[in-house]
Design brief:
Keywords: Membrane, Transmembrane, Transmembrane helix. The chain is built from 19 helices and no strands. It has 430 residues and is mainly α. The chain has two domains: 185 residues, MFS general substrate transporter like domains (Growth Hormone, Chain: A); 191 residues, Growth Hormone, Chain: A (Up-down Bundle). Helix 10 packs antiparallel against helix 13 and helix 14 runs antiparallel to helix 19.
Length: 430
């Protein structure tokens, strides 16, 4: 027996297999590690396809107003009429937009978005015909009001990310940051493209190209069904997200933030015009948008720290402080100093919007995300309209020496006051 055991071959214990590391998705993040959070979200199946289609549809959002103003003012010789027509369309969109989003929540984006885009494009084409045929002024208002069904493309894209990344808050933060950067790029390139088309080709070119891009992009976006949030049919009476606790003060902050954007644009144009370089206003405003876009992308690379309510209050407070820089830059009388001040001030815009949109989504019921995000955009539009009017009044009555920049500074301070007040009430309620 001993000889038999001695004769058996001695085998080494098996070496445990080394666990295989999961393959990283090929892309930018594989070569540039700091961009890995963005590579991670775009590795989600279908994410690239719906994002590309949505960007195609979103670019016209920065084209339509500028195109309408150039087209109407060029044919009727009245900027007042052009401004009134676009203001009427903006007001109609603020009313109709949440209803369109509610239908998208109830029946699905794929069924609602293409039809809504088609109705909006019909309104744009009617506006072109009315201008071409020299129709009465009231027809311009009627036609442009019909564009109010334009889908909230950014909100629909954010709703898809919220559905796809509902179990991954870190990735959802990155996705919201990307969406805000995309908004900045579209509103930076859209007016430039519109002005080029309307001046280099013919006055109606900007509106026509924007209509084609919107309808094409929305159809392609709607075809991406696997990333679409499931519809949430409603059998009984459903409460509006506006009745959710904490959402109305948040939307009021969005109104004030929109007033910052609207007044900043008008006051900057007036300041540049007063210095005899009105053409430079677009470049100066583009710097502000570029600063916001860069900050948004960087913000998406950082993991969110602390409670969202505290982060949002910090972002809005920082925005209020930095909005004093354009006022100081304008007082110096130097366009270069003003441009640098706007670049720095713009860097807090995207983090504020990213955190704010995340708060809106968190406070909105799951089956009403499109509606909740559209309410936020509607609040911004209302603020932009009010800020534009206030900025125009300040430019006319205070002159173009830079005093008008007190309007965006005051709007930012009001936003901070509303946010901090709501935060204190929420803390006391706990």
């Amino acid at each position: 027996m001993i000889l038999f055991l001695a004769a058996r071959p001695v085998t080494a214990p098996p070496v445990p297999a080394r666990p295989r590391r999961p393959r990283r998705p090929a892309g930018v993040g594989s070569h540039l590690p700091f961009l890995r959070p963005y590579a991670r979200i775009f590795a989600v199946p279908g994410a690239r396809a719906f994002t590309a289609a949505n960007l195609l549809a979103r670019l016209p959002m920065g084209m339509f107003s500028v195109s309408a103003v150039l087209m109407i003012a060029g044919s009727r010789g009245s900027y007042a009429l052009a401004g009134a027509v676009t203001a009427a369309g903006l007001a109609a969109t603020a009313v109709v937009g949440p209803w369109t989003a509610r239908l998208a929540d109830r029946y699905g984006q794929g069924r609602v978005a293409p039809l809504a885009a088609l109705l909006a494009v019909t309104g744009s084409l009617a506006l072109v015909l009315c201008v071409r045929l020299d129709a009465p002024a009231w027809t311009l208002f009627a036609a442009y009001v019909c564009t109010a069904t334009t889908p909230n493309t950014g909100g629909m894209s954010r709703a898809r990310w919220a559905h796809l990344l509902r179990d991954d808050p870190r990735a959802l933060h990155t996705a919201h940051s990307f969406e805000q950067a995309a908004d900045e790029v579209c509103f930076m390139l859209g007016p430039v493209l519109a002005a080029f088309l309307c001046t280099a080709l013919f006055p109606e070119a900007g509106t026509l190209v924007g209509a084609v891009l919107l309808l094409t992009g929305m159809v392609l976006f709607a075809l991406q069904r696997r990333t679409e949030p499931p519809p949430a049919p409603r059998t009984g009476r459903v409460r509006s997200p506006l009745r959710r606790r904490g959402l109305p003060p948040l939307l009021l902050t969005f109104v004030c933030t929109g007033a910052v954007f609207g007044s900043l644009e008008v006051v900057t144009i007036g300041f540049a015009d007063g210095h005899g370089v009105r053409a430079a206003a677009g470049g100066i405003l583009a710097l502000q948008a570029a600063g916001s876009c860069a900050a948004g992308l960087l913000y998406g690379l950082l993991p969110p720290a602390g409670r969202p309510a505290v982060r949002f209050a910090g972002c809005v407070t920082t925005m209020a402080a930095l909005m004093l820089l354009p006022l100081l830059g304008a007082v110096s009388g130097s366009l270069a100093v003003l441009a640098a001040a706007l670049l720095v001030a713009g860097m807090v815009t995207a983090p504020t919007m990213v955190t704010g949109m995340g708060r809106v989504q968190a406070l909105t019921p799951a089956g009403q995300v499109n509606e909740g995000l559209t309410l936020a955009v509607t609040a911004l539009l209302a603020g932009i309209a009010a800020g534009s009017a206030a900025g125009g009044w300040a430019t006319d009555h205070l002159g173009s020496g830079g005093a008008g920049y007190a309007v965006p500074a005051a709007a930012a301070a009001l936003a901070a006051a509303v946010t901090l007040s709501g935060h204190r009430r929420a803390v006391r309620a706990r």
